[in-house]
Protein backbone atom coordinates (compact mmCIF):
# COMPACT_ATOMS: atom_id res chain seq x y z
CA UNK A 1 0.00 0.00 0.00
CA UNK A 2 2.88 2.37 0.74
CA UNK A 3 5.77 3.48 -1.41
CA UNK A 4 9.04 1.63 -0.64
CA UNK A 5 11.32 3.41 1.83
CA UNK A 6 13.05 6.32 0.12
CA UNK A 7 16.79 7.07 0.29
CA UNK A 8 16.45 10.54 1.78
CA UNK A 9 20.12 11.45 1.39
CA UNK A 10 20.22 10.47 -2.28
CA UNK A 11 16.96 12.19 -3.12
CA UNK A 12 17.91 15.34 -1.25
CA UNK A 13 21.19 15.52 -3.12
CA UNK A 14 19.32 15.24 -6.40
CA UNK A 15 16.63 17.64 -5.22
CA UNK A 16 14.18 14.81 -5.73
CA UNK A 17 12.29 15.23 -2.47
CA UNK A 18 10.98 18.70 -3.18
CA UNK A 19 11.28 21.98 -5.04
CA UNK A 20 11.85 25.13 -2.98
CA UNK A 21 9.64 28.14 -3.68
CA UNK A 22 8.86 31.47 -2.04
CA UNK A 23 5.59 33.17 -1.20
CA UNK A 24 5.14 36.89 -0.60
CA UNK A 25 3.76 36.89 2.93
CA UNK A 26 2.17 39.70 4.96
CA UNK A 27 4.17 40.82 7.99
CA UNK A 28 1.23 41.38 10.34
CA UNK A 29 -2.13 39.71 9.76
CA UNK A 30 -3.91 41.33 12.69
CA UNK A 31 -3.37 45.08 12.41
CA UNK A 32 -4.05 47.74 9.83
CA UNK A 33 -1.27 50.24 10.44
CA UNK A 34 1.17 50.92 7.56
CA UNK A 35 3.90 48.70 9.06
CA UNK A 36 1.53 45.72 9.04
CA UNK A 37 1.35 45.71 5.25
CA UNK A 38 5.06 45.09 4.83
CA UNK A 39 5.86 41.73 3.27
CA UNK A 40 8.59 39.11 3.41
CA UNK A 41 9.53 36.04 1.41
CA UNK A 42 8.35 32.84 3.06
CA UNK A 43 9.92 29.62 1.84
CA UNK A 44 7.93 26.49 1.18
CA UNK A 45 8.83 23.13 -0.33
CA UNK A 46 6.57 21.29 -2.73
CA UNK A 47 6.44 17.80 -4.23
CA UNK A 48 3.82 17.00 -6.88
CA UNK A 49 5.30 13.67 -8.01
CA UNK A 50 2.25 11.64 -7.04
CA UNK A 51 -0.43 14.31 -7.01
CA UNK A 52 -3.67 13.27 -8.68
CA UNK A 53 -4.28 16.82 -9.83
CA UNK A 54 -6.80 19.59 -9.32
CA UNK A 55 -9.32 18.06 -11.74
CA UNK A 56 -9.61 15.04 -9.47
CA UNK A 57 -9.71 17.15 -6.30
CA UNK A 58 -6.70 15.18 -5.12
CA UNK A 59 -5.65 15.93 -1.53
CA UNK A 60 -2.93 18.27 -0.33
CA UNK A 61 -0.82 17.35 2.70
CA UNK A 62 0.78 20.35 4.41
CA UNK A 63 3.54 20.19 7.01
CA UNK A 64 3.33 22.97 9.61
CA UNK A 65 6.93 24.16 9.94
CA UNK A 66 8.34 24.47 13.42
CA UNK A 67 11.41 26.06 15.01
CA UNK A 68 14.07 25.47 12.36
CA UNK A 69 15.02 25.12 8.72
CA UNK A 70 12.08 23.55 6.87
CA UNK A 71 14.36 21.34 4.77
CA UNK A 72 15.50 19.53 7.90
CA UNK A 73 11.93 18.74 8.89
CA UNK A 74 11.00 17.67 5.36
CA UNK A 75 13.95 15.28 5.25
CA UNK A 76 12.79 13.71 8.51
CA UNK A 77 9.08 13.41 7.71
CA UNK A 78 9.05 10.28 5.60
CA UNK A 79 5.44 9.51 6.51
CA UNK A 80 4.24 12.17 4.07
CA UNK A 81 6.47 11.03 1.20
CA UNK A 82 5.60 7.37 1.72
CA UNK A 83 1.84 7.94 1.87
CA UNK A 84 1.70 10.41 -1.04
CA UNK A 85 1.45 7.64 -3.72
CA UNK A 86 -1.45 5.96 -1.90
CA UNK A 87 -3.41 9.18 -1.46
CA UNK A 88 -2.20 10.77 -4.73
CA UNK A 89 -1.35 13.75 -2.55
CA UNK A 90 0.47 16.99 -3.21
CA UNK A 91 3.06 17.61 -0.49
CA UNK A 92 3.80 21.07 0.88
CA UNK A 93 6.19 21.97 3.70
CA UNK A 94 5.87 25.57 4.92
CA UNK A 95 8.70 27.23 6.82
CA UNK A 96 7.89 29.05 10.06
CA UNK A 97 8.52 32.80 9.97
CA UNK A 98 11.86 33.84 11.56
CA UNK A 99 13.50 30.50 10.77
CA UNK A 100 15.52 29.09 7.88
CA UNK A 101 15.21 31.48 4.95
CA UNK A 102 11.90 33.03 6.00
CA UNK A 103 12.99 36.14 7.86
CA UNK A 104 11.03 39.39 7.57
CA UNK A 105 12.71 42.75 7.06
CA UNK A 106 14.47 41.95 3.83
CA UNK A 107 15.33 38.40 4.83
CA UNK A 108 18.04 39.77 7.10
CA UNK A 109 18.24 37.68 10.25
CA UNK A 110 20.21 40.31 12.17
CA UNK A 111 17.65 43.01 11.41
CA UNK A 112 14.71 40.70 12.16
CA UNK A 113 16.28 39.76 15.50
CA UNK A 114 17.47 43.28 16.30
CA UNK A 115 14.97 44.33 18.96
CA UNK A 116 11.64 43.59 20.59
CA UNK A 117 9.80 45.59 17.93
CA UNK A 118 11.06 43.53 15.00
CA UNK A 119 10.85 40.24 16.90
CA UNK A 120 7.33 41.09 18.01
CA UNK A 121 5.94 39.65 14.78
CA UNK A 122 7.12 36.15 15.67
CA UNK A 123 4.19 34.34 17.24
CA UNK A 124 2.19 31.16 16.78
CA UNK A 125 -0.92 33.12 15.78
CA UNK A 126 0.99 34.97 13.05
CA UNK A 127 2.51 31.66 11.89
CA UNK A 128 -0.90 29.99 11.65
CA UNK A 129 -2.23 32.94 9.67
CA UNK A 130 0.80 32.63 7.38
CA UNK A 131 -0.03 29.00 6.73
CA UNK A 132 -3.70 29.69 6.07
CA UNK A 133 -2.88 32.53 3.68
CA UNK A 134 -0.31 30.50 1.76
CA UNK A 135 -2.51 27.41 1.52
CA UNK A 136 -5.51 29.34 0.21
CA UNK A 137 -3.38 31.21 -2.33
CA UNK A 138 -1.67 28.01 -3.48
CA UNK A 139 -5.00 26.22 -3.96
CA UNK A 140 -6.33 29.15 -5.98
CA UNK A 141 -3.24 29.24 -8.20
CA UNK A 142 -3.50 25.49 -8.80
CA UNK A 143 -7.26 25.71 -9.46
CA UNK A 144 -7.54 23.22 -6.62
CA UNK A 145 -10.04 24.99 -4.40
CA UNK A 146 -11.94 21.74 -3.81
CA UNK A 147 -8.87 19.68 -2.92
CA UNK A 148 -8.99 18.65 0.76
CA UNK A 149 -6.09 19.74 2.96
CA UNK A 150 -4.65 17.63 5.79
CA UNK A 151 -2.08 19.33 8.01
CA UNK A 152 0.77 17.46 9.67
CA UNK A 153 3.29 18.45 12.30
CA UNK A 154 5.58 17.13 15.01
CA UNK A 155 6.49 18.64 18.38
CA UNK A 156 5.86 22.41 18.18
CA UNK A 157 4.79 21.78 14.59
CA UNK A 158 2.32 19.23 15.94
CA UNK A 159 0.93 21.85 18.29
CA UNK A 160 0.54 24.17 15.32
CA UNK A 161 -1.21 21.44 13.32
CA UNK A 162 -3.74 20.82 16.11
CA UNK A 163 -4.30 24.54 16.65
CA UNK A 164 -4.64 25.08 12.89
CA UNK A 165 -7.45 22.55 12.70
CA UNK A 166 -9.15 24.29 15.64
CA UNK A 167 -8.71 27.83 14.27
CA UNK A 168 -8.98 27.20 10.52
CA UNK A 169 -11.37 24.24 10.07
CA UNK A 170 -12.48 25.74 6.75
CA UNK A 171 -8.92 25.39 5.42
CA UNK A 172 -7.93 21.92 6.70
CA UNK A 173 -10.23 18.91 7.02
CA UNK A 174 -7.99 17.24 9.59
CA UNK A 175 -4.68 17.29 11.46
CA UNK A 176 -2.06 14.73 12.42
CA UNK A 177 -0.46 16.23 15.53
CA UNK A 178 2.50 14.09 16.53
CA UNK A 179 4.14 14.52 19.94
CA UNK A 180 2.32 17.82 20.44
CA UNK A 181 2.49 18.92 24.10
CA UNK A 182 -0.49 21.26 23.91
CA UNK A 183 -1.11 20.80 27.65
CA UNK A 184 2.44 21.57 28.83
CA UNK A 185 1.44 24.93 30.25
CA UNK A 186 0.77 26.59 33.59
CA UNK A 187 -1.77 24.84 35.80
CA UNK A 188 -2.42 22.04 33.29
CA UNK A 189 0.25 19.44 34.09
CA UNK A 190 2.91 19.09 36.76
CA UNK A 191 6.17 20.91 35.92
CA UNK A 192 7.99 17.75 36.98
CA UNK A 193 6.35 15.46 34.43
CA UNK A 194 9.07 16.04 31.82
CA UNK A 195 12.02 15.07 34.04
CA UNK A 196 10.10 12.24 35.69
CA UNK A 197 9.53 10.61 32.29
CA UNK A 198 13.21 10.97 31.37
CA UNK A 199 14.13 9.38 34.69
CA UNK A 200 11.78 6.47 34.07
CA UNK A 201 13.24 5.96 30.58
CA UNK A 202 16.74 5.47 31.94
CA UNK A 203 15.63 3.53 34.99
CA UNK A 204 13.65 1.07 32.86
CA UNK A 205 16.77 0.28 30.83
CA UNK A 206 19.27 0.07 33.68
CA UNK A 207 18.92 0.65 37.41
CA UNK A 208 22.68 1.11 37.59
CA UNK A 209 22.64 3.72 34.83
CA UNK A 210 19.96 5.62 36.73
CA UNK A 211 21.99 5.52 39.95
CA UNK A 212 25.19 6.64 38.21
CA UNK A 213 23.47 9.64 36.63
CA UNK A 214 21.68 10.53 39.86
CA UNK A 215 24.97 10.53 41.77
CA UNK A 216 26.96 12.36 39.09
CA UNK A 217 25.67 15.84 39.89
CA UNK A 218 27.26 15.91 43.34
CA UNK A 219 30.50 14.55 41.91
CA UNK A 220 30.55 17.36 39.34
CA UNK A 221 29.85 19.94 42.04
CA UNK A 222 32.53 18.54 44.35
CA UNK A 223 35.11 18.36 41.55
CA UNK A 224 34.36 21.92 40.43
CA UNK A 225 35.08 23.26 43.91
CA UNK A 226 38.57 21.73 44.04
CA UNK A 227 41.65 23.60 42.78
CA UNK A 228 41.92 22.85 39.07
CA UNK A 229 38.59 21.04 39.20
CA UNK A 230 36.94 22.95 36.38
CA UNK A 231 39.89 22.25 34.10
CA UNK A 232 39.65 18.57 35.03
CA UNK A 233 35.97 18.58 34.10
CA UNK A 234 36.70 20.41 30.86
CA UNK A 235 39.20 17.76 29.82
CA UNK A 236 37.07 14.84 31.02
CA UNK A 237 34.11 15.96 28.92
CA UNK A 238 36.33 17.12 26.02
CA UNK A 239 34.89 20.61 26.06
CA UNK A 240 36.39 22.92 23.43
CA UNK A 241 35.91 26.16 25.35
CA UNK A 242 38.82 27.17 27.54
CA UNK A 243 36.59 28.02 30.48
CA UNK A 244 33.43 26.39 31.75
CA UNK A 245 31.23 26.71 34.81
CA UNK A 246 29.82 23.79 36.73
CA UNK A 247 26.31 25.14 36.17
CA UNK A 248 26.76 25.32 32.40
CA UNK A 249 28.13 21.77 32.31
CA UNK A 250 25.23 20.42 34.36
CA UNK A 251 22.73 22.21 32.12
CA UNK A 252 24.38 20.83 28.97
CA UNK A 253 24.34 17.29 30.38
CA UNK A 254 20.68 17.58 31.35
CA UNK A 255 19.80 18.72 27.83
CA UNK A 256 21.79 15.85 26.31
CA UNK A 257 20.11 13.27 28.54
CA UNK A 258 16.71 14.72 27.69
CA UNK A 259 17.43 14.68 23.95
CA UNK A 260 18.55 11.06 24.14
CA UNK A 261 15.27 10.10 25.80
CA UNK A 262 13.25 12.15 23.32
CA UNK A 263 14.84 10.41 20.34
CA UNK A 264 14.91 6.90 21.79
CA UNK A 265 13.86 5.46 18.43
CA UNK A 266 13.65 1.71 17.78
CA UNK A 267 16.03 2.05 14.81
CA UNK A 268 19.27 4.04 14.26
CA UNK A 269 18.65 7.67 13.31
CA UNK A 270 20.03 11.18 13.16
CA UNK A 271 17.36 13.75 13.82
CA UNK A 272 17.90 16.67 16.19
CA UNK A 273 19.39 19.42 14.03
CA UNK A 274 21.68 22.21 15.20
CA UNK A 275 19.35 24.78 16.72
CA UNK A 276 18.96 28.21 15.12
CA UNK A 277 20.16 31.25 17.03
CA UNK A 278 18.12 32.10 20.12
CA UNK A 279 15.69 29.18 19.92
CA UNK A 280 14.40 29.99 23.41
CA UNK A 281 13.04 33.41 22.51
CA UNK A 282 9.57 31.97 21.89
CA UNK A 283 9.87 30.40 25.34
CA UNK A 284 10.08 33.98 26.62
CA UNK A 285 6.96 35.24 24.88
CA UNK A 286 4.08 32.75 24.70
CA UNK A 287 5.42 29.19 24.99
CA UNK A 288 5.90 29.31 28.75
CA UNK A 289 6.19 25.60 29.51
CA UNK A 290 7.05 24.84 33.16
CA UNK A 291 9.83 22.28 33.58
CA UNK A 292 11.44 21.36 36.88
CA UNK A 293 12.75 18.50 38.98
CA UNK A 294 11.52 18.07 42.52
CA UNK A 295 11.01 14.37 43.01
CA UNK A 296 13.28 12.36 45.31
CA UNK A 297 13.22 9.61 42.73
CA UNK A 298 14.29 11.92 39.89
CA UNK A 299 17.78 11.41 38.51
CA UNK A 300 18.12 15.18 38.14
CA UNK A 301 19.11 17.63 40.87
CA UNK A 302 16.11 19.34 42.51
CA UNK A 303 14.92 22.42 40.66
CA UNK A 304 11.68 24.23 41.43
CA UNK A 305 10.26 26.00 38.40
CA UNK A 306 9.30 29.59 39.22
CA UNK A 307 7.60 32.02 36.86
CA UNK A 308 9.46 34.97 38.37
CA UNK A 309 12.79 33.36 37.42
CA UNK A 310 11.61 33.05 33.82
CA UNK A 311 10.41 36.65 33.83
CA UNK A 312 13.73 37.88 35.21
CA UNK A 313 15.73 35.94 32.59
CA UNK A 314 13.54 37.01 29.67
CA UNK A 315 13.62 40.67 30.65
CA UNK A 316 17.38 40.62 31.17
CA UNK A 317 18.30 38.76 27.99
CA UNK A 318 15.54 39.65 25.52
CA UNK A 319 13.81 42.63 27.16
CA UNK A 320 10.54 40.70 26.88
CA UNK A 321 7.72 40.32 29.39
CA UNK A 322 6.38 36.74 29.12
CA UNK A 323 2.66 36.07 28.75
CA UNK A 324 2.29 32.73 30.55
CA UNK A 325 -1.47 32.41 30.06
CA UNK A 326 -1.76 33.58 26.47
CA UNK A 327 -1.56 30.17 24.77
CA UNK A 328 -4.30 28.65 26.91
CA UNK A 329 -6.38 31.80 26.41
CA UNK A 330 -5.94 31.72 22.62
CA UNK A 331 -6.12 27.98 21.97
CA UNK A 332 -7.58 26.49 25.13
CA UNK A 333 -6.26 23.77 27.37
CA UNK A 334 -8.37 23.81 30.51
CA UNK A 335 -11.21 21.28 30.24
CA UNK A 336 -9.89 20.40 26.79
CA UNK A 337 -11.82 17.15 26.59
CA UNK A 338 -15.16 18.80 27.20
CA UNK A 339 -14.40 21.77 24.95
CA UNK A 340 -12.98 19.87 21.96
CA UNK A 341 -15.62 17.17 22.21
CA UNK A 342 -18.19 19.89 21.62
CA UNK A 343 -16.35 22.10 19.14
CA UNK A 344 -13.60 20.09 17.42
CA UNK A 345 -13.12 17.13 15.10
CA UNK A 346 -10.65 15.24 12.92
CA UNK A 347 -7.43 15.43 14.94
CA UNK A 348 -5.00 12.58 15.59
CA UNK A 349 -2.79 13.07 18.64
CA UNK A 350 0.15 10.65 18.58
CA UNK A 351 2.38 10.29 21.64
CA UNK A 352 5.16 7.89 22.51
CA UNK A 353 5.45 7.35 26.24
CA UNK A 354 9.26 7.30 26.15
CA UNK A 355 9.12 10.89 24.93
CA UNK A 356 9.33 13.29 27.90
CA UNK A 357 6.99 15.70 26.10
CA UNK A 358 4.23 13.08 26.18
CA UNK A 359 3.37 14.26 29.69
CA UNK A 360 1.88 17.37 28.10
CA UNK A 361 0.15 15.51 25.30
CA UNK A 362 -3.40 14.26 24.75
CA UNK A 363 -3.26 10.61 25.81
CA UNK A 364 -6.93 9.62 25.69
CA UNK A 365 -9.59 9.84 23.00
CA UNK A 366 -11.64 13.01 23.27
CA UNK A 367 -14.34 11.93 20.83
CA UNK A 368 -14.85 9.52 17.93
CA UNK A 369 -13.03 11.95 15.64
CA UNK A 370 -10.41 13.37 18.03
CA UNK A 371 -8.27 10.33 18.61
CA UNK A 372 -5.26 9.68 20.83
CA UNK A 373 -2.79 7.07 19.59
CA UNK A 374 -0.31 6.11 22.30
CA UNK A 375 2.79 3.92 21.91
CA UNK A 376 4.37 2.58 25.08
CA UNK A 377 7.77 2.24 23.40
CA UNK A 378 7.41 5.30 21.15
CA UNK A 379 9.65 8.37 21.11
CA UNK A 380 9.36 11.92 19.76
CA UNK A 381 7.16 11.88 16.61
CA UNK A 382 8.59 8.51 15.62
CA UNK A 383 5.46 7.88 13.54
CA UNK A 384 6.44 10.64 11.09
CA UNK A 385 9.91 9.31 10.35
CA UNK A 386 10.86 7.39 7.21
CA UNK A 387 10.04 3.72 7.58
CA UNK A 388 12.79 1.09 7.62
CA UNK A 389 12.89 -2.68 7.30
CA UNK A 390 13.81 -2.80 11.01
CA UNK A 391 10.68 -1.01 12.23
CA UNK A 392 8.87 -2.97 14.96
CA UNK A 393 5.35 -4.21 14.31
CA UNK A 394 3.79 -1.76 16.77
CA UNK A 395 5.18 1.17 14.76
CA UNK A 396 3.93 -0.29 11.47
CA UNK A 397 0.50 -0.76 13.03
CA UNK A 398 0.38 2.84 14.26
CA UNK A 399 1.16 4.22 10.81
CA UNK A 400 -1.48 1.96 9.25
CA UNK A 401 -4.00 3.23 11.77
CA UNK A 402 -3.14 6.86 11.03
CA UNK A 403 -3.46 6.22 7.29
CA UNK A 404 -6.86 4.60 7.78
CA UNK A 405 -8.14 7.55 9.81
CA UNK A 406 -6.88 10.09 7.28
CA UNK A 407 -8.42 8.05 4.45
CA UNK A 408 -11.77 8.19 6.26
CA UNK A 409 -11.51 11.98 6.58
CA UNK A 410 -10.86 12.33 2.87
CA UNK A 411 -13.59 9.86 1.93
CA UNK A 412 -16.11 11.75 4.08
CA UNK A 413 -15.00 15.03 2.51
CA UNK A 414 -15.58 13.68 -1.01
CA UNK A 415 -19.00 12.41 0.04
CA UNK A 416 -19.91 15.83 1.41
CA UNK A 417 -18.66 17.41 -1.81
CA UNK A 418 -20.98 15.18 -3.87
CA UNK A 419 -23.94 16.01 -1.65
CA UNK A 420 -23.56 19.77 -1.99
UniProtKB/TrEMBL annotation:
EC number(s) reported in the record: 3.4.16.2
Region forming the signal peptide: none
GO MF: dipeptidyl-peptidase activity; serine-type carboxypeptidase activity
Enzyme class, broadest EC rank: hydrolase
Glycosyltransferase found in the keyword field: no
Pfam families: Peptidase_S28
Keyword set, alphabetical order: Carboxypeptidase, Glycoprotein, Hydrolase, Protease, Signal
Entry's Gene Ontology BP terms: proteolysis
Family per similarity comment: Belongs to the peptidase S28 family.
Protein name, as recorded: Lysosomal Pro-X carboxypeptidase
